[in-house]
Automatic annotation (TrEMBL):
InterPro entries: F-box-assoc_dom_typ1, F-box-assoc_interact_dom. Coiled coil: none annotated. This is F-box protein interaction domain protein. It comes from the Eukaryota. It holds the Pfam family FBA_1.
Length: 195
């Protein structure tokens, strides 16, 4: 079996004065290219946490919803002792689930999920999780190149995503680039310049 390693989060546990990394290992049986893919080729993922203080990895005995695209830095945020990432499918069961944000508490080593707004994310071109003025921001870039920016009020509560503003389509803007420390939002133009 060959593992695929996904780093889901890195952050600081202020109670234990420790830096930690949470990761998922997915295991697949290596099959010939001529062989048919079977669900038996996939083994349930294993979650591990690394402690800088002990310089070791430890298995977590919890089931966290898996997701596609979790290696993308656009979908990860650390704030107040918790790592957050987007989850669009549950690979452990190989089926789609309602899109949600997974939050992992580095001190208590537990997770919770926050649903993304149903009906809002269905026609997206890309989804982003960012930090905006100290709040978790969920940014949807739709197929018309409009950016919908919402911030989270309360973890675990679907209705607490508050619309902040919409950036209307612009022919020169290609994609969201990042967030500034003072609330600025940077976009990449088609000529790779930032605006």
């Amino acid at each position: 079996m060959q593992p695929l390693v996904y780093s889901n989060g890195f952050g600081y546990d202020h109670v234990r004065d420790d830096c930690k990394v949470i990761r998922r290992l997915s295991f697949f049986y290596i099959i010939d290219i001529d062989e048919q893919w079977e669900e038996d080729s996939y083994v349930d993922p294993r979650w591990e946490i690394y402690s800088l203080r002990s310089n070791s990895w430890r298995k977590l005995n919890i089931e966290i919803p898996c997701c596609n695209g979790e290696n993308s830095p656009n979908e990860k945020v650390y704030v107040d002792g918790m790592c957050h990432w987007l989850s669009l499918t549950d690979e452990s069961n190989c089926h789609s689930v309602e899109p949600h944000m997974v939050s992992f508490d580095l001190y208590n080593e537990v997770f919770l999920t926050t649903p993304l707004l149903s009906g809002v994310v269905e026609l997206y071109d890309s989804l982003h999780l960012k930090l905006l003025n100290g709040s978790i921001a969920f940014i949807i870039q739709d197929q018309e190149n409009t950016f919908h920016v919402r911030i989270l009020g309360e973890l675990g509560v679907n209705k607490s995503w508050t619309k902040i503003f919409i950036v209307d389509p612009s022919p020169c803007i290609e994609q969201l680039f990042g967030m500034g420390t003072k609330g600025g939002i940077f976009f990449k133009k088609h000529d790779h310049e930032l605006v």
